[in-house]
Amino acid sequence: MAATVNSALKFQVLAELLESEGTALICVDGQEVVTMAEGRGLEAMGVADRATLGNSLAAVFARSPEVLPVWRKCLSGERVRTESVHGEAYWLQLFHPLPGPDGAVAGAAMLAIDVTRDLTTMRQAQLLRELVNNVPTNVFAVDLRGICEVSEGGLLAEIGVRPGEYVGLNVFEAYGGVIPGLDEAMSAAFRGEQRVVEFSFGDQLYSQATLPRRDAQGNSAGAFCISTNITERRRDEELLRSQMRIIQEQKEAILRLSSPIIEVGHDALAVPLVGSIDGERAAIIMHGLLEAIVHKRARFAILDLTGVDTVDPTSAEHLIRIIHSVRLLGAQAIITGIRPPIAQIMAELGIDLSRLHTLRSLQDALRHCSESGAR
């Protein structure tokens, strides 16, 4: 036996519906006389003072006479749906014929619903969709099963897809093998974490951010995927890195030229130092000098400080480190060209000069190397 809804329940539901500020119900008989006028929406529609029992339709809608033909069409037996604006509100109006005991039309009812808020939400959604479809990105929303529910974006055309075409598609089945790390990124989003994966499509490179998606209660509802084309950006980054490498190589070449390693005998090397000695320059000098000592089998390495402007604790430490490295290779390090101001600064810094083999000039160092080699 089919279940039926009792009249009391129907009346309760109708009463609660009409308590809404955005709902109104008006009924008329066959003579266009009002037989019912309920709902807080009557005031918003501007007919509350006239929609009283016994009033005529013409009186109720004196300010909106364009509604009368619609009422009369309904009284002729036709269901009608119209939309109208009252004040700042947008109303949906549903007209239904009311049959009498003999089945003939005995009156009509109009249910009016304020849909302004719904239309505003729809318009906002449409504007957002237009925005997404005009920016260089793709936006997808998937549920916990991986079923796509939203597929929009200005880059869809790049992969031959229309907006909305992916809706209903299971992204795991369609792209699990195409986008590396997609399954893990989606699982992370379902756990509330964000992931970024990169993948190639044709000759283009894309970056996809996968973000958590939650329902109104804050529970996981799936994921949002936002894809952008990073092909040009990656090319620019590679170009920049290449240019930086070239600049660094040129800088190192200049530093090497500013501290050339000169072979001054069959077993002696000389490095004339000019200017200051910072960490980068000291590293280049040490690397080049140690390689040259091994390659030339040199017994002496002369560091000439004639052109050094000043010495601070840092540059002195670099100098001592170079000397120790030379000694570890079995060669003798000789310091020449220490001018009085530099000697005074080194003494003030507490550098133990007795640990260094120092000579007055490069000529003295060359003479020392020659005599030592003859012995």
UniProtKB/TrEMBL annotation:
Q: Which residues form the STAS domain?
A: 258-369
**Domain PAC, residue spans:** 190-242
InterPro entries found in the cross-reference section:
Bact_StressResp_Reg (IPR051932), PAS-assoc_C (IPR000700), PAS-like_dom_sf (IPR035965), PAS_4 (IPR013656), STAS_dom (IPR002645), STAS_dom_sf (IPR036513)
Q: Please give the name of this protein.
A: PAS domain-containing protein
Name its species: Nannocystis pusilla
Q: Which residues cross the membrane?
A: none
Q: Which UniProt keywords apply?
A: Phosphoprotein
